[in-house]
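[Structure tokenization] protein backbone as discrete codes

[Encoding] learned vocabulary of local backbone shapes

[Begin record] amino acids and matching fold tokens:

___
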Amino acid sequence: MCRLAVYLGPETSLEHMVFDTNHSLEKQAWQPKELREARFNADGFGFGWYNDNAQIARYRQTLPVWGDANLHDFCASLQRSLWLCYIRSATPGLGTGIENTQPFCYQSWQFLHNGYINSFNENIRSKVRQLLHHEIEAIIHGTTDSEYLFALIMHFFKQSGDMVQAIRDAFLQLKEWLGKERALLNIVLSDGVQILATSHAINGLCPSLYYGKDLKDFPRHSQLLVSEPLTDDTNWKAVSSHSLIRIRPDVLMESLEL
């Protein structure tokens, strides 16, 4: 299980997202409050954003987030209106390495996954490979269930051109393959304009996910999605289990049918 924090709003620093709040993402790496199936998140981290030309930019590292001596200076130097932040707790058997560290990306889309897919190596990996269009199969560089899930979603997106429908189709296909096995499926996708996210699981409990808007420690009109609240603000709201949501600039969170 991992921790994630996603931001959309007026420009704010990456330092504020990662370090500044009283239950910051960095603190969640070693002292999480709502991590059911692990104690630490020490297997790397990654940040995704879009540069001034609307192109994807990422910083990924295999060290624990507290182990990168340059990170404070790096984070303080960047201001953006959209952030995707991720702290990794590796699923046993799915190794560490840059190629296994999120965010994953393809074309304009970036992807985060908090969860896992049971029996992935034994049952699911080969099924995904057999289904994928060759262009989508080529985007897989690592070995994680998360990257294969991203490829599966992009496979269906290539067919329909509708990312909401692609998420639904991927989850339905995965449910068919899993049978009685379990998958925890909190995901985030962004194309630099909107953010799509799910709180979902198959044969299990959904990982925690919270939404915040106009929080006192963040700029006005900002919106956040987080695994755990970053502050003590009472305006954080738990996202309903088995839901699909979308956030866009100047639009309140929309609930979509999953």
Remarks:
- The two ends are 22 Å apart (CA to CA).
- The chain has one domain: 3-256.
- The chain has seven helices and 14 strands.
- The mean pLDDT is 94.
